[in-house]
Design a protein that fits this description.
Chains A, B: One of its GO terms (cellular component) is nucleus. 2 copies of one chain form a homodimer. With 337 residues, the first copy, chain A, is α+β, with helices and mostly antiparallel strands. Chain A has 13 helices and 4 strands. Chain A has a 4-stranded antiparallel β-sheet, sandwiched between helices. In chain A, strand 3 and strand 4 form a beta hairpin.
């Protein structure tokens, strides 16, 4: 190596100071980011309202958005899920339901018409941004789906997740939790269905990419964090946390997670698909110019397959059934950035 | 199909109205998004300044950030690029240089110490968000890198891109442009090097994922767009654009694009790595608790390989040379969300 890095070497004490400064700065960035989310929410709220009114008049808007959704979400949408969306998905609403306190929390509210799969008219999945001393991220409570007889697309996983979540509500001891019959039932169900791809509706059973974190635990961890930061700001020495580290293994908790990666999928829906829904919808319509008559005559659900659609995938556009199969498909247009 | 969708069928006239409303609404969303970027920029500016001061005291901050960067960027970093970063990358600065007019434009400014590869102390790559009637997105001018003799990591691609860009400056005719010797030279170089992975520094040669769009063309397209939107708002009928569509094939322009996907890579740097740099830096240090003494003694450049590091990759952490190889690597910690 032509350069000698030894002049850059830092002592453990220097590193300690450096990491304290870094933590302080990081907390300021987190506050700023929260403020940005709040501002964005306020700026866009009236537009989302306007869009909801517009979309209500557009047939199949959200199923067509899901048809064009990013790969990371599409990977989780099974052929039957596409069928459900095409048949009965009527609305989607994303709200930051505790925007003042924690703007990173959000809810996905799906609205459905009468259908053959479940009796629910709305399914709302709330994601709370919560803290522990080692982690922060989104957690959620499993949502009961009232599946019609023989129609449960998750093979009992959502029901089992709801039951476990109820059963462990007042249990803080991890060993007792793992001894619950509901725990065994859910982990067995997950294990036996590991080879099959879980339905998108398994997302409603999602709990956490780490483990369940209650509002109380989160509030306490946040308070501790803020006390430590206040000390750092005041230039005080941080006291060591003498508590024994509990022998926690978050991997272990994933034994009962029906939908690993559910927080990421939900985040893409909330932060990409929700704000950019008009663009995803429009991507179905291949237009050369924005308001070209020739294109408008072709302004219909596009019948040609996307290049990366897998063969087994259900063609929502065919289900939506706009006809015009005889027409020459409009030429592909480069997707707008 | 149990449900009949025919009640949803829309006439071409209804669709036309629908798409006009959609375009109007979309333009409002674009304005709102621009406002959000401006607000975020203003909120975070003082923090970025504070971070720059902090980072100046942290050895190898940015090379360690690049070491931990998202897969979509990492894919473009070759072993020699990692070596360059570890040896001489001293700073990175992202600025929204025309935030009032077009907040989506940004610049990446890399600072380097004296090194064996090139004589430049800073390399600044500007990305302008521009419009045509069919497309909008980021375009950039190739940046000259003053490679030292025999040290050009791009095998002449950056030089050739700069030369072509200069040569075509006053040419508007595409056929004349394609007849330029500089055009043939660059497209030949790209074709013959197609099998080899291009250096990350090829990013400095990036022009566009579509084609080069000048400030003038963009201003004109934007003006037309706004005139049409104003008419839509006023409820007026949009006039047809009678201009013949020029026989443009953006694919064709990619013959002289040194770094396809460069706009996406730059966007990830600007919108993910830049705001979250402290987190990426911290990800090197595996800590169980934030301020734990035991961890602080291990607070050093982590020597264990990431699971997905490819075998050929240069280990920056080894280049950085913090030693301590004999130590037990700290246990992996779940990455913070």
């Amino acid at each position: 190596m032509p350069h000698d890095h030894s002049e850059h070497e830092q002592t453990p004490e220097q590193l300690e100071v450096q990491f304290e400064q870094l933590s302080l700065l990081e907390s300021k960035f987190e506050d700023a980011e929260a403020e940005v989310i709040r501002k964005a929410d306020a700026i866009k709220a009236p537009l989302y309202k306007e869009r909801t009114e517009f979309v209500a008049k557009v047939p199949h808007f959200w199923s067509l958005v899901f048809e064009q959704c990013p790969q990371e979400v599409e990977n989780f949408i099974q052929p039957t899920d596409s069928e459900v969306f095409a048949e009965c998905l009527e609305s989607l609403e994303v709200t930051r339901f505790e925007v003042d306190d924690q703007p990173r929390s959000f809810s996905l509210k799906f609205g459905f018409s009468e259908n053959e799969w479940f009796s629910d008219k709305t399914l709302e999945k709330k994601f709370w941004y919560r803290h522990t001393k080692d982690w922060d991220g989104l957690v959620s409570e499993p949502v009961k789906i009232n599946w019609k007889k023989g129609k449960d697309l998750t093979g009992g996983l959502t029901d089992a997740a709801v039951k476990l979540h109820e059963a462990r509500k007042n249990i803080t001891d991890r060993k007792k939790e793992m001894a619950l019959p509901e725990y065994k039932d859910l982990s067995n169900k997950i294990e036996t269905s590991a080879d099959a791809s879980v339905s998108f509706f398994g997302l409603f059973a999602f709990v956490s990419g780490y483990r369940w974190v209650s509002a109380e635990e989160s509030a306490e961890a946040r308070k501790k964090d803020q006390e430590q930061l206040a000390k750092l700001k005041a230039g005080e020495k941080i006291e060591e946390d003498d508590e024994e580290d509990e022998d926690e293994d978050p991997q272990d908790y994933q034994e009962t997670e029906v939908f690993p990666g559910g927080d990421e999928v939900a985040t893409i829906i909330a932060e990409d698909m929700w704000p950019n829904a008009l663009g995803y919808y429009k991507a179905h319509f291949e237009m050369d110019g924005e308001f070209d008559d020739e294109d408008l005559s072709e302004l219909d659900v596009d019948m040609d397959e996307d290049e990366d659609d897998s063969a087994e995938e259900v063609d929502i556009r065919a289900l939506v059934g706009k006809g015009k199969k005889g027409e020459e498909p409009p030429s592909k247009k480069q997707r707008k950035a």
